[in-house]
Design goal:
The chain has no helices and 16 strands. The chain is mainly β. It has a six-stranded antiparallel β-sheet with strand order 1-6-2-3-4-5, with no helix packed on it. One of its GO terms (molecular function) is translation elongation factor activity. Belongs to the elongation factor P family. This is Elongation factor P.
């Protein structure tokens, strides 16, 4: 059990039978009435984000999440196959479970799998990944008044805004948290 006064960003908790990770929290002490903790929680089973208010001092269950290293092997239709790096066991996840992550996954890529009591909840990507530009229009000289950008399609199908000097076949560093261009690799 954990006291809501001890919330930290990234903490995993169990509330009403669901597993949540704490995205944001705020301790509120109004001038009149009891103190409370306002929190923003992400459901790890379905990806929904909810805002929840707890009374100060309330205790909730702490969820012990297990992270294991796995390799992404291949996609077959709507299913994506992974292999545990230690036991070599293979398992599949659906495209619905990996909606955002598919923008960054390449074959043979190492990621971490998130599981709770044997139930696979999803994957953790590295903070940034290297992806190759497969399609972009050439930059036009004289178009650079202030931080001009253009659209680029990456090898995973993700479209990002990049500076004009980026060309086709360049390898870029992309932030997996927001899907934005960071730099050339």
């Amino acid at each position: 059990m954990i006291n809501v006064n001890d919330f930290k960003t990234g903490l995993t908790v169990e509330v009403d039978g669901d597993i949540f990770t704490v995205l944001d929290f705020q301790h509120v002490k109004p001038g009149k009435g009891a103190a409370f903790v306002r929190s923003k929680l992400k459901n790890l089973r379905n990806g929904n984000t909810v805002e929840r208010t707890f009374r100060a001092g309330e205790t909730i269950g702490r969820a012990q999440i297990e992270n294991r290293g796995v390799s992404y092997l291949y996609a077959s239709g709507d299913e994506h196959t992974f292999m545990d790096n230690q036991t070599y066991d293979q398992f599949t996840l659906t495209s619905k479970q990996l909606e955002w992550e598919l923008n960054f996954l390449k074959e043979n890529m190492n990621v971490n799998i998130i599981s709770y009591n044997g139930e696979i909840l999803g994957i953790n990507l590295p903070t940034s990944v290297e992806l190759k530009v497969v399609e972009t229009e050439p930059g036009i000289k004289g178009n650079t008044a202030t931080g001009a950008t253009k659209n680029a399609k990456l090898e995973t199908g993700l479209n990002v805004q990049v500076p004009l000097f980026i060309n086709q076949d360049d390898v870029l560093l992309i932030d997996t948290r927001d899907g934005k261009y960071m730099s050339r690799a």
